[in-house]
């Protein structure tokens, strides 16, 4: 019975996975799904998924195939009450919420967007220690006593001393018979990564633009966390000045002020210098803006920072330009003019939620 339940469960998971893959583009653009995120799972509403099965009703209630019937007789009995309101022509919507592990969601995302696995570049200086059992020894804690080896040793000793009686096979280990598992501690560097999110929160960036950034950041985070054992996320907001904030503030800060993009790039650069050495970390800066900058001098400073420090230190540097009714959109044109042949800088224009899907593919499709 347990095996049958497990088969049904596996089949249900396959159906759910297939539905998610089929509708992935739609789920990518839905912000409310992110609000259902737990520690390691996300709750996804899936309409009209139901496992086919027989349903048995009460015995002897009549119906099709149960005895003689009269022409015109109601199959449902005489106790049916008329419904209220007018008849509708559309089917009902049955929504089932299923919990999907983020790791599984990342696999689906990778398969559908054909994302290559990332080849880590840096190694974190703080290494992890792992204990691996490698053999047997005569001393050790009782919690690591190897009972099978101990019994075998006691049996060999009693046989060799003529103390073993096959008719009364009673084996009593003594201190010299005890055997314990031995282990070896190995030190392994872990491939770690840091994601540095930067977002323009000037007056031209509205709620819809910030919601697009929030949705895209969720999927970027989900994929990168599936590629690394450990990952850190840092958040920078900027208008005319930049500052580091927590995740909640990053996505909920009200827009105001002018725009000076170089302030965010300078803070990002200092953060890398002080905390994330490029030879030890895989670094992923993501900058989102509507492309409106303070002036040509500041744009030139941004280009200098990118060419001189940020691009050489990063696995990739990703710039996403979110369309705004109040933004000029000039910055991505300047980036294309300066770095048209540079593969370390990936650019994406996101005019609406419908373009988040392709933007994620552009950012993560290099496998770096």
**CATH overall fold name of the largest domain:** Rossmann fold
Average predicted local confidence, pLDDT: 78
Total domains, how many? 3
Poorly predicted runs of 5 or more residues:
none
Radius of gyration: 31 Å
CA distance, first residue to last residue:
47 Å
Give the CATH architecture of the largest domain.
3-Layer(aba) Sandwich
What overall geometry do the principal axes of the alpha carbons give? flat
**Which class best fits the helix and strand makeup?**
alpha/beta
The main sheet comes to: 6 strands, mixed
Strand numbers in spatial order across the main sheet: 7-6-5-8-9-10
Number of helices: 10
The CATH superfamily of the largest domain is von Willebrand factor, type A domain
Q: Could you spell the SSE succession in H and E letters?
A: HHEEHEHEEHEEHHEHEHEH
Instruction: Please give the CATH class of the largest domain.
Output: Alpha Beta
The total beta strand count reads 10
- Please state roughly what percent of the residues sit in beta strands, choosing from under 5%, 5-15%, 15-25%, 25-35%, 35-45% or over 45%: 15-25%
What topology emerges from the helices and strands here?
Layout: H1 2-22, H2 24-28, E1 41-47, E2 95-101, H3 102-113, E3 128-137, H4 147-160, E4 180-188, E5 192-200, H5 207-227, E6 230-238, E7 242-245, H6 247-252, H7 261-275, E8 282-289, H8 296-313, E9 317-322, H9 331-338, E10 345-350, H10 356-364
Parallel strand pairs: 5-6, 5-8, 8-9, 9-10
Antiparallel strand pairs: 1-2, 3-4, 6-7
Helix pairs in contact: 3-5, 5-10, 7-8
């Amino acid at each position: 019975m347990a095996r049958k339940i497990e088969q049904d469960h596996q089949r249900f998971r396959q159906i759910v996975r297939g539905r998610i893959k089929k509708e992935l583009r739609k789920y990518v653009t839905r912000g409310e799904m992110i609000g259902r995120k737990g520690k390691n799972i996300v709750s996804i509403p899936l309409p009209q998924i139901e496992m086919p099965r027989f349903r048995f009703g009460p015995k002897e209630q009549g119906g099709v195939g149960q005895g003689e019937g009269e022409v015109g007789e109601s199959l449902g009995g005489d106790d049916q009450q008329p419904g209220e309101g007018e008849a509708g022509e559309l089917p009902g919507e049955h929504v089932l919420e299923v919990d999907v592990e983020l790791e599984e969601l990342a696999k689906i995302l990778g398969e559908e967007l054909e994302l290559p696995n990332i080849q880590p570049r840096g190694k974190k200086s703080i290494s992890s220690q792992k204990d691996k059992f490698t053999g047997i020894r005569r001393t050790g804690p009782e919690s690591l006593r190897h009972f099978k080896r101990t019994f075998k040793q006691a049996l060999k000793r009693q046989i060799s001393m003529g103390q073993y009686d096959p008719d009364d096979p009673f084996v009593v280990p003594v201190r010299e018979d005890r055997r314990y598992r031995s282990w070896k501690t190995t030190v392994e560097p872990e491939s770690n990564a840091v994601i540095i999110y930067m977002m323009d929160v000037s007056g031209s960036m509205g709620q819809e633009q910030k919601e697009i950034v929030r949705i895209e950041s969720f999927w970027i985070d989900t994929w990168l966390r599936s590629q690394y054992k450990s990952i850190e996320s840092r958040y920078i907001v900027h208008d005319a000045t930049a500052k580091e904030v927590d995740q909640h503030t990053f996505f909920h800060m009200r827009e105001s002020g002018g725009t000076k993009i170089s302030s965010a790039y300078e803070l990002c650069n200092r953060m890398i210098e002080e905390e994330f050495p490029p030879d030890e970390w895989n670094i992923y800066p993501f900058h989102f803006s509507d492309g409106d900058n303070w002036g040509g001098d500041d744009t030139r400073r941004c280009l200098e920072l990118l060419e001189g420090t940020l691009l050489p230190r990063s696995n990739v540097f990703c710039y996403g330009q979110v369309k705004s009714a109040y933004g000029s959109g000039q910055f991505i044109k300047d980036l294309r003019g300066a770095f048209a042949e540079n593969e370390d800088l990936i650019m994406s224009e996101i005019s609406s939620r419908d373009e988040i899907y392709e933007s994620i593919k552009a950012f993560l499709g290099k496998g770096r």
